[in-house]
Design brief:
Blueprint lengths: L1 E9 L2 E8 L13 H5 L20 H31 L6 H40 L6 H15 L5 H28 L1 H7 L4
Antiparallel strand pairs: 1-2
Helix pairs in contact: 2-3, 3-4, 4-5, 5-6
Length: about 200
C-alpha cells in the first residue's frame, strides 16, 4: 500500500508517484505496546465458568505432580544411600576407576529402586486423595490428606497381608498428618518455594 504521494513533473506533464511506507499505515496509529493493540488478557482463561472457582489441582495434575516429586526424591535419596554403601565397601589399594564404577553402580541401582517405590506410593496417594475429595464433595482439608495417606499406605502393602496393610496405613496416615501440621512452618521458612509448590492455592 502506497500512501504518501509525491508529484513529479515530467515532459508529459504531472505524474503522481507513490512511495511505499509500511511503517506508517494509513488510518492506523500503531501504539507503543502490542498489549494496547490486541488488548491481551492477563488473567487465566478457563473453558468452563465453574473452573474459575476451583482452588485445587485436577486429578491429572495431582497424579503427575506427586508421582514426579516422589520418584525424584526417592532417586536422590537412593543415590546417596548407594554412594554410602560404595564408600563402605571400598577396599584399600583399589584404583580410582574401580571405586568410581562401584559408586555409579550402587547409586544407580539403589536410586532406581527407591525412586520406583516412592513414585508408586505417590501415585497411590494422588489417586486416593482425588477419590476421597470427590466423595466428600470437593472438600480439601486435613481429613482428606490423612485419609489419602492411610489409603496409600494400605494399598501399597496390600499383597503382604492384613497386618502389614494396617501398619502401613497407620504409618501413611501419621506421615500425612505430620505433613499437614508442618505445612504452615514450611510456608514461614520458605514462602517463595511454598508458593511455587502450591501454585494453584
Amino acid at each position: 500500500m502506497s500512501f504518501p504521494v509525491e508529484i513529479q513533473e515530467t515532459e508529459e506533464g504531472l505524474r503522481p508517484r507513490g512511495l511505499y511506507a509500511p511503517q506508517r499505515p494509513e488510518g492506523l496509529a500503531v501504539p507503543s505496546s502490542y498489549h494496547k493493540l490486541y488488548n491481551l488478557p492477563t488473567s487465566p482463561e478457563f473453558l468452563f465458568e465453574e473452573e474459575k472457582f476451583k482452588q485445587t489441582r485436577t486429578w491429572g495434575e495431582n497424579l503427575t505432580f506427586y508421582t514426579g516429586c516422589g520418584y525424584l526424591s526417592g532417586a536422590v535419596a537412593g543415590a546417596l544411600v548407594g554412594l554410602r554403601r560404595a564408600a563402605a565397601e571400598a577396599e584399600r589399594g583399589e584404583s580410582a576407576k574401580i571405586r568410581l564404577s562401584r559408586a555409579l553402580n550402587q547409586g544407580g541401582s539403589v536410586g532406581r529402586a527407591y525412586g520406583n517405590r516412592l513414585g508408586v506410593v505417590a501415585m497411590l496417594f494422588a489417586g486416593a486423595e482425588s477419590f476421597v475429595r470427590h466423595q466428600r464433595d470437593g472438600n480439601d482439608d486435613w481429613v482428606t490428606t490423612v485419609a489419602a495417606g492411610a489409603s496409600a499406605g494400605a494399598l501399597y502393602r496390600i499383597a503382604s497381608g492384613p497386618r502389614s496393610m494396617i501398619v502401613a496405613g497407620v504409618i501413611g496416615g501419621v506421615l500425612s498428618g505430620a505433613a499437614v501440621v508442618g505445612k504452615p512452618m514450611f510456608e514461614e521458612l520458605a514462602p517463595q518455594l511454598a508458593a511455587r509448590l502450591n501454585y494453584l492455592h
